[in-house]
Amino acid sequence: MELAVAIIILLITLIVLALAVYLIATIVELGKINAGLSQVLDGVSEIATKTAPVNGVLDAINRTLVAGRDLLEGLALKKAGPDAAGLVESCFPGEGQRFLQRIGRHGAVVTIGEDYDRGAAILNSLLGGPAPPAPSAAPAAAPAAPAAAAAPAPQSAPAPSWRSGGGRISLRPSSRGAKGSAPPSVPGRLSAKGSRPWE
Amino acid sequence: MLILWVMVIVLIVTLVILAVLLKGILGAARSITPTVTAIAGVAAAGSKDLDAVIALVTTQNYISQVVAGLANYGGSLDVALPDA
Question: What pTM, to 2 d.p., does this model score?
Answer without folding.
Answer: 0.58
